[in-house]
Amino acid sequence: MDPPPAAHRDPAMDPPPPAALMDELVEEVLIRVPPDDPASLVRAALVCKRWCRLIAGASFRRRFRELHPRPPMLGYLYRRPEDTDFVPTSSFRPPHAVRDGWRVLDARHGRVLVLDWAAQYKTMDVVLVVWDPVSDEQRRLPALRTATLFSSWNAALLCAAAGCDHLDCRRGPFLVVVVATGLSSPAKASTHVYSSDQGAWSEPINVSHVSHRYDFIMMAHRALVGNSLYFNYKLNTKILEYDLGTREPSVINLPSAFHGWHIVLMESEDGVLGFATVQESKLSLWAREAGLGGYAGWAQRRVIELDKLLPVSDCSRSLSPYVDPIACPPYVVSGQEDRTVHFQLQGCSLHELLHSSTESGLDG
To answer: Which InterPro entries does the UniProt entry name for this protein (predicted)?
Structure first.
């Protein structure tokens, strides 16, 4: 026996479909995705074209950065003898995790400044590349002839947008500043500035300085504090300051107790020049402070007992004063633009120890 025919359903009686959420409400939800899990945003962008358009928009990026002002650590760049690897610490994976023939010099606001070793080996010129690891965009700068860089040099990457809050400027204009010293007669320090707006290097500015056999700028971490760049200088016995406004260099003495030690220049928590170093099992943080008569000196701000914080069995091991900042155990110190101090341990694990005096509670 056939079943009775289904009752005819009048489409007019169906409830209306729910109204689509306004873009503003969708955005309010999406900007609350944890910033250290970028894969979740990618999955959300694949839901539909509308969501993809919202997430890709400049307004969303700015609101996301405003809600999460402290950028998450997506990974770190590990420098090998002949290449650079991106080691992820989150769900983010760059299009190219290994860069053959590249050496990282500086990173700021989402862009990375690298030296193309392979190109330099072929031409004997210095070839710099500004790289965006997220989009894999690259901008290869005009080569600087090695002869013009004298005997030692270092470089820094800066945002060139006036009044920028650096929430979303990785696609904006930038500057690359190269500071070099030499042993010519008379001895000179020189600066070269590349402008992305001009697409060219400026004419070098040369300043005479007293020649010494150890007048070398160290190829180490540099610091931007206020309107000045700072570089390790003279085998880590001094600091070379370069004023971005006057384009004049000057020299700052380091405390004699740290001459030759591996130090990392950084901005202190109150916005002045500082440095970090390791002594035995202690992280020592110093800062430049003004004294009587306008004289500036160094003051120790904090001492952190590492053996109480780090999961290593050999924290009592002394760190050589001439330690290689990349390869040698047990620790690697790195100062970041948000004044974070990190330690890299054997086994490539990464631990954040300090990002502000109020949040860390690590006063020694």
So the answer is: AT5G49610-like_b-prop (IPR056594), F-box-like_dom_sf (IPR036047), F-box_dom (IPR001810)
Planar angle of CA 349, 350, 356, nearest 5 degrees: 160
Residue 136, pLDDT above cutoff 80: yes
Read off the pLDDT of each residue in 220-243 and give the average, rounded to a whole number: 85
User: Concatenated DSSP letters for 57-118?
Assistant: SHHHHHHHHHHS-S----EEEEE-SSEEEEEESSS---S-SEEETEEEEEEETTEEEEEEHH
**Sign of the CA dihedral with 19 first, then 24, 26, and 32 last:** negative
- pTM of full prediction above 0.85: no
With CA atoms as reference, report the closest residue to 72 among 40, 41, 34: 34
Task: Choose among 332, 328, 239, 233: nearest CA to 278.
Answer: 332
Across the chain, which distance is largest between two alpha carbons, in Å? Answer: 111
State what percent of residues in the chain have pLDDT above 90. 11
User: Measured between alpha carbons, how far is 249 from 208 in angstroms, rounded to an integer?
Assistant: 10
Cα 90 from Cα 344, distance rounded (Å) = 16
* Beta-carbon count within 10 A of 31 CB: 20
Phi, psi of 203 (to 5 degrees): -65, 140
Burial readout 236-249 (b: 16 or more C-beta within 10 A, e: otherwise): bbbbbbbebeeeeb
Q: What are phi and psi of 233, to 5 degrees?
A: -145, 150
Predicted pLDDT of residue 122: 73
Q: Is the pLDDT of residue 1 over 60?
A: no
Q: Cα dihedral sign for 177, 101, 86, 232?
A: negative
Q: List Cα–Cα distances, 29 to 32, 56, 64, in angstroms.
A: 6, 15, 11
The pLDDT, as a whole number, for residue 340 is: 44
